[in-house]
């Protein structure tokens, strides 16, 4: 397991997060709620520090271009620019696809499966979520330090940006 980054001060965190409207897919009410919860959870508890930044807290603007790159525009909450970087979403395609499939299996299993079967599916879901989180942490290693819990919350948000109504 990788070691958590050491955040010297308590101000290295995301205080505000905005998503470019053009990046948002057409969604159902449930998916809009899922996205709001992901953002709320991220803001509530995160550790995030662009490598060259001396202080935060941060206002982060995310934009997804044609599902290929996730762009981060990072400023302090006072509007001082801190960083701009992007991450390729191509390596995430398989994990996101598998994650959606296992989530669908989980929701279907709730109706008919035994508790042991549901637990096994949920363990697989958590494993994929952790895999996506580690990939995100690794993808950001040259741009920002993030805690594992922050990476998990960002991965949830990435999934919500790729989700299309069924």
TrEMBL record:
| Superkingdom of origin | Bacteria
Any Pfam family from its record, for instance, is UPF0262
Q: What is this protein called in UniProt?
A: UPF0262 protein
Source organism (scientific name): Algimonas ampicilliniresistens
């Amino acid at each position: 397991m990788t070691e958590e980054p050491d955040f010297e001060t308590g101000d290295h965190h995301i205080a505000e997060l905005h998503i470019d409207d053009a990046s948002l897919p057409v969604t159902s009410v449930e998916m809009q709620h899922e996205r709001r919860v992901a953002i709320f959870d991220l803001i509530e508890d995160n550790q995030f520090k662009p490598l060259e930044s001396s202080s935060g807290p941060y206002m982060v603007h995310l934009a997804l271009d044609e599902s290929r790159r996730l762009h981060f525009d990072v400023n302090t909450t006072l509007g001082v620019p801190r960083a701009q970087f992007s991450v390729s979403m191509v390596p995430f395609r398989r994990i996101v696809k598998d994650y959606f499939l296992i989530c669908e299996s989980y929701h279907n299993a709730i109706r008919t499966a035994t508790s042991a079967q549901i637990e096994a599916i949920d363990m697989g879901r958590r494993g994929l979520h952790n895999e996506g989180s580690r990939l995100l942490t690794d993808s950001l290693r040259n741009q920002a330090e993030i805690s594992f819990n922050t990476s998990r919350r960002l991965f949830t948000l990435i999934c919500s940006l790729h989700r299309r109504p069924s």
